[in-house]
Amino acid sequence: MSYDLSLLGWTDLRAAELPADTVPARVARVDRGAAEVIAADGQHHVKYGARVRRASAADPVALPCVGDWAALRWLPEGRYELDEVLPRTTAFIRGGVSRDSVGGLSGDGQGQVLAANVDLVFVAEPSMHSTDFADLGRIERLVALAWESGGTPVVLVTKSDLFENGLDELLDDVRVAAPGVDVHAVSSLHGDGVPLVADYLGGSRTAVILGPSGAGKSTLVNALAGDPLMETQQVRAADGRGRHTTVHRELIPLPAGGLIIDTPGIRRIGLYDIGDGVDLVFSDIEALASRCHFGDCGHSSEPGCAVLAALESGELPERRLESWRKLQREAAWMASRTDARLRKEQLSRWKFITKEMRRSGRNRP
Ligand SMILES: Nc1nc2c(ncn2[C@@H]2O[C@H](COP(=O)(O)OP(=O)(O)OP(=O)(O)O)[C@@H](O)[C@H]2O)c(=O)[nH]1
Ligand SMILES: [Zn+2]
Q1: Taking CB atoms and a 6 Å cutoff, what residues make up the pocket around ligand 1?
Q2: Ligand 1 pocket test: which of 125, 157, 218, 268 has the largest number of ligand atoms within 8 Å of its C-beta?
Q3: ipTM for the predicted complex
Q4: What predicted TM-score, i.e. pTM, was given to this entire model?
Q5: Residue 122 belongs to what domain range?
Q6: d(CA 278, CA 326)
């Protein structure tokens, strides 16, 4: 089986970075010390070469991850080895903080890349979640995370069929929560909006879908993929196989071109390093704050505060200001951690391209 790598996102820009005597391959899945990759001549299971092992021992962020482009080197013994991870254009990084551990935090200083080279980040938020409406705060949080990864967020208000009246008003509220971000309603059940989501992938782009459990992510991926690649909740519950089904297919090529990365890690991603992302998702408040009388205005009781004025006039919803304060506190806390700062520096070499891309065309597919 041979693959057209351009359909998997391979570009001339990346080709320029390929070391001599190697062939490119996209990482579909990783497994301690080895990866499943897709090269032009087929799929391979490859072990990491000495260079990758050395680099990742020093910094786990250097470990290959799903979505990476890798350089494979042919060994005399007749197999490929993963020789190098090519520079990433975008990356979802989980900080060295596990919120599941005792006390809620365990700062081990070990960053981990969950997915790389993701062009589009679909933020799925159901229009109705049991009896609750779409959660705007969660959208803000995931959009911030999306910007921080370097990908372009697109908000999908899923299960739009559950919202009979007022869908337009809901979409307006979501647009306020995510300025500069495309917002669409999707019903995988009826197929509404699904072709539009596929269009974003433009034949060779890579996307992830973030969102709470039950948002309809698997159902949407199935609708995009056109065949039952992943089983939805009911099926999984029935056969008791848990989430294994998605683990086996982490990089999913779509029939119309483009790819979706769906991994348990990406599904569980919450709020990690969102420093820059907060500024982007709250660009309206940042703009207001720049007009405050005092440069270091805390927007609490200072005279000449443009933020408070907007709050009073109703231009700025109070919920949104609170959401901004909360995310800023978390981002500040993350930034105060030395290891988080270090990790950022190590990553900056991978991220500069990203920022340029973000500046040049952040909203359109
Ligand atoms: N009414 C309606 N229900 C939907 C739609 N999409 C998905 N569902 C249902 O919502 C439930 C959850 O869908 P999933 O696709 O499993 O959600 P998920 O986001 O993948 O959830 P996790 O795997 O837990 O992260 C299932 O019962 C689906 O049948 C939709 O467009 N409309
Ligand atoms: Zn102010």
Answers
A1: 158-159, 161-162, 187-189, 211, 213-219, 232-234, 267
A2: 218
A3: 0.97
A4: 0.74
A5: 90-365
A6: 10
